[in-house]
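[job 0412] stage=complex_fold ligand=zinc ion status=START
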Amino acid sequence: MSLAKRDIVPKILADSGRPAMRVPKKPLKPKKCRVCPTVFAPRTSLQICCSPWCAGEYAKSSRERKEARESRKEYREAKDKTKSRADWIKEAQKSFNDWVRARDALKPCISCGRYHQGQYHAGHYRTTKAAPELRFCEINVWKQCSVCNNHLSGNILEYRINLIKKGIDVDWLEGPHEPKKYTIPELQGIKALYKQKLKDIKNS
Ligand SMILES: [Zn+2]
Ligand SMILES: [Zn+2]
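[job 0412] stage=complex_fold status=DONE, emitting structure tokens
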């Protein structure tokens, strides 16, 4: 036994408490190359291409994808800088409304109680004009059919009755509220929050 080997062996014994066994290496499962249709036997688990040429192509295309992703991000950030507060309110409202419709997907129209094919909106009980401070209030906005929302001005009498049936504090909704002045970062936060909540519903 060489000096070096004598040094190593007791160390392995100390670590595992058992004599080290030489486990024969299992050959790795064949893989399909990420670039061409070749199926190959990888030498290491990290190898994803059949040949150096394909590996080069793969690196090039992932670099290009990364660059495209970065330029899209830069474009989006530049565009975001030109957006006004009103634009952000609109975007946050869309994100919030999309979530409302998903939350109530299995419920009928809040006003007429009908289930039907066709378009549904997120209908505000107190409108965003009358009570802008309740525009993102989860108990003020419910899934509503387009007929009630657009043509019957929210069908508010029926809406009120059904909110009470749900146990919603209608008096609170109708009462006075502190005005809210959202900052742009707050609106961005609301948009992101309801986007995430929508994703959570879709994934559940
Ligand atoms: Zn290949
Ligand atoms: Zn309706």
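Residues 33 and 48 are 6 Å apart (CA to CA).
[job 0412] exit 0
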